[in-house]
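Example 3.2
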Amino acid sequence: MSYDPESNKTSYKNALEELIVTYENCSSELEKCRIALAEVLKIKEDKTNDLVRNVDFNIQNLLLPIVKKLIEKSSSIDSKYLEMLEQNLTNLTSPTGFTLSNPSYRLTPKEIELCNLIKNGFTIKEIAEMQNLSVRTIETHRLNIRKKLGISTRKINLVSYLNHLETT
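Structure, written as tokens:
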């Protein structure tokens, strides 16, 4: 059996042409997948936007009018809670809203609740009264919150920091 360089060139050329055709087919299929994925993502985005609009509409037209009536007829501490509820409902569908339930902060449900009260301007004394806890307990919670948010060693106002987080 003799070595034929022309035969090897032809077989290499054929193999190369097969690879080029396979590559072009794969590229074509990949482009089709990219287009299909883009369409699915667009549909998902549209559905999400529809859901946000529906939730916002229901909050504005069903829930907030009830909360406003309750605020008018409630005691001072109850009205503070209701005003906070009203504010939270208004901010619920905000696209830039910051969520304190982000797992990276490791805040407990109680700490998230206290952050919300702090952010809404309630004093430690008011929060203690509203939560039926001691002032010292609320101060301890504030310190833990500051540690978890990474601001315990910095001279930053917690109210300002929480409000800033909501807008970033």
